[in-house]
Amino acid sequence: MSNKKQILQLQNSFNVMSSDLAEQIIKALPADQYEITTAFLKGKPEAGQPVSAAGKSVYFDFSSKQLKGIRRWFAIRQVLRFCRDHHFDGIICHRFKPTHIMLNLARKLNTKAFISIAHGFGDYDRSYRQKLVNRLADDRWCFVGVSRPVQNYLMSTINRLNENNTAAISNAIDIERAVSIQLSQEQARQELGLPDDRFIFGTIGRLVEIKGHAVMIDALAQVNRKYPTAAVGIIGYGEEEQNLRQKISDLGLQNSVFLLGKRAEAIKYVKAFDVFTLPSFTEGLPLALLEGMSGALPVIGSDIDTIKPYIEGLGQVCKAGDSESLAQAMEYYLSLPAAARAEEGRHLYEVLCTRHNINDFRESYRNLMDEMLTRTA
Description:
Layout: E1 5-13, H1 21-28, E2 34-42, E3 56-59, H2 72-86, E4 90-94, H3 96-105, E5 113-118, H4 127-136, E6 141-145, H5 148-157, E7 166-168, H6 175-181, H7 185-192, E8 199-204, H8 213-223, E9 230-235, H9 241-250, E10 257-259, E11 275-278, H10 287-294, E12 299-302, H11 308-311, E13 316-318, H12 323-335, H13 338-355, H14 358-375
Parallel strand pairs: 1-2, 1-4, 2-3, 4-5, 5-6, 6-7, 8-9, 8-11, 9-10, 11-12, 12-13
């Protein structure tokens, strides 16, 4: 029997990228002290897909129906058996569904520490979820927000949560690695099939309404009247794809908006863009923003609490959901000399290195886990 502390990271859907928060937490916990198991409630890797760096990966492969309503108790019982078999010292839950399961199971386990990570806003808007935490979260739990605003959201939404049982650990990326794998603009555009002669406002993110992609397309339609070489590139996939394609067609932008689909290690391609653009309506602390900054690109971001403070005075801030405001920010960069854009990008990169150092991030999670395990020993 290993003397190492046994840690489970429980996630909802299978999706592994090296820059993922969960993968960085694995690197935060020293291998000579911890054994990490990563488990996914839904999905499993297909041939050639990257897998977790954890010592062990488990794929429950539940269907969406098995995680809803009365049927979810089948899944919960399976997770309970798994946890009892492995005697985990600590369990880290990413987002609500894994947290929901472990809140229901915690009192049946001897696990010493539970960490629930909220990746953004909205998970606890429903009163049922608030009541669940208030009723079932005991002193073994800590709720972590990926930024200070997300921590504030947790404390303001759930009565039981306060400064003593919550924390803010800001997202970070491995900047050195990110830079080492990034392609040049010419290489990135070639691999993505993007034209060399266009000025591209690019973004990375799921194709969902809250990411503001439709606003970005509307803004481009306004900008193209004066700057016909301007274009938009979007790396990502999701439920809004058909709606976005319809909008592109309606506006006659088929040759100016490029939906680039899902890409493994999307951070490789950030330099394909001239300006990184993040017009989201809501975010936790978007890794995509940090990825854009790692490419030393100038940035446009919406004025929400989890983007504006990170780029204000460094890049351009637009009003969330306002295509005219975004168009003005786009035109600012289109009219700016290349040298000035490059200088903005370099400044953002320097700020990234200072404020979002991956070593600080890892140390914060390591200290939190050590503290919780010691406190409950």
